Fold:
Amino acid sequence: MQKEDLTFFRKWFMDYTKNFYSSDPFVRENIELKVKHTNKVCENILLLAKAEKLGEKESLLAETVALFHDLGRFEQFLKYKTFKDSESENHAVLGVKILKKAGILSHLSPEESDIILKAVEYHNLMEIPESASNFPEMLFYSKLIRDADKLDILRIICEDYEEGKECQNPALELYLPDTPECSEAVIEDIMNNRMAKIRDVRNRNDVKLLRLSWVFDINFPKTFVLLKEKRYLKIIMSSLPKTDEIQKVIRHLDAYLEKQLAKK
Ligand SMILES: [Fe+2]
Structure:
């Protein structure tokens, strides 16, 4: 893969997304949010690529994965007005379909094209399929995009929390109610160092806990460093109710994070 390929992909992405800018302010806000998210995920993946000492060609491939990882989001939002896959369709699979139909990856070697398509397909799964372990390169890029993506989703969430208000965009809160309790199953997963499951999420507290539980699916030391620097987890933690149960969960998460940072 060459530098020119990425330049071409960037231009194609800009032209593609232009089609989705609607006069409806709600649609427009969410399309803009995803374009900005894509740019930030590209920045994040390059930070991780640098920390992992990737060469130029590998970094270009990583950035391409980041550029296309949420390609399906635009059609998804225009069609269903939601980012919730369970109420619309799997945006990663949709992104792969769009990429294949556009045929733009034919510029690359079949191996590179395959890595991009699989990393996009795997980026939103609960976990990367076992079968990917037979393909170390594919597995590596899938891990990179999952970390880079999580970092930026946390930024988006925190931008509003930091100002001490609840998130104003209902699409980001998955349209869930702001009730005071939290789901037992979500807490149990966190206390057992597991990612919480979307099916157990019932309210906004659960959404926050689910996002905190992503720390159990972080793959690279640099991601932990960036998480600490940006204070994303602290911001989410401080937006949760101060109950004994939640304080216990927070202490558990803090201890886990410190342990990961000490490993570097
Ligand atoms: Fe995504």
Summary: Residues 69-70, 91, 123-124 surround fe (ii) ion (CB under 6 Å). The radius of gyration is 18 Å. The first helix runs from residue 3 to 18. The chain has a mean pLDDT of 92.
